[in-house]
């Protein structure tokens, strides 16, 4: 389990150190850095398991992730207990490097710490994109990063898309896997019906607790159309041509009380999001760290509480699972202990301040008379920036 994570100059997290538990929810105004915390953890997980050049490309390249109007390096560090061993990893991105046709290529410096505070073995290196032919080769300096990445286990940041969840799907894999956007849900559920019906039953039972009108989750055969690139030759010159191919796949169908045989595209957004989330948690390989943005999205207040209850049941069954989510709902917070809530706020300079709800100056006075959601609704977030400013002003 990741117990602590710190960020320096990562997006709006110019200086943030955060203690984590097994099930935490982050609250705060829009644009206050909640999603940045999830992105930072996801980025750390990727960078310990993947080639640095692969992670550097695209929208999630270091240039876009570094805090604006700052001059120092971008640094991220996490530590925790993994299979009983205290371990950690630190990644530092140094500004500098050389220009290229696609823009600036920064220098990378990374440190791996395998036993934090006891025997400390660390490795540092600077890697320019393209310098290493195969960064995951065990003979390179990235070998320890790769090993630690597997120790950390899988991390999934779900960005479920309702249209992808509802769509008919097809897979030619022996064991299909659910996409982080929910793609392939119908195929996964159809596979479970034949290969592991008890798992499908568990998903259905949990979903029925959250959506009481739901009676049954099933699938039926459906035609799936895919566009694929096919090479053709014109005057001996190869050209790529897009063609449509048709496959027989699966369509998700839901039976509700008084309304059986409802195709997934006609079901509610909240219903599909719940089924997708539960499927991601109940199918293998199960993530060790699950990152959820807007966990309460499209859910009735009562359904929010039931969803939290179902997630706690999964956590009780899987001691290696850790869940970090964001929310805007005080109703959802009523199902969390104050110790499980982090509050974010934006300073005037655009940087994020973050503190546990338990650090509010009057928490001890109010904790026995208010529920967690009521407390957050009452105290808001301004105290977080004031507390951070007071800490900065102290000699």
From TrEMBL:
TM annotation in the entry: none
Superkingdom, taxonomy of origin: Bacteria
Pfam families: AAA_15 (PF13175), AAA_21 (PF13304)
InterPro entries: AAA+_ATPase (IPR003593), AAA_GajA/Old/RecF-like (IPR041685), ATPase_AAA_core (IPR003959), P-loop_NTPase (IPR027417), RecF-like (IPR014555)
MF GO annotations: ATP binding; ATP hydrolysis activity
GO biological process: DNA synthesis involved in DNA repair; double-strand break repair
Residue span(s) of domain AAA+ ATPase: 20-346
PANTHER family in the cross-refs: ATP-DEPENDENT ENDONUCLEASE, OLD FAMILY-RELATED, DNA REPLICATION AND REPAIR PROTEIN RECF
Protein name (database record): AAA+ ATPase domain-containing protein
Source organism (scientific name): Polyangium fumosum
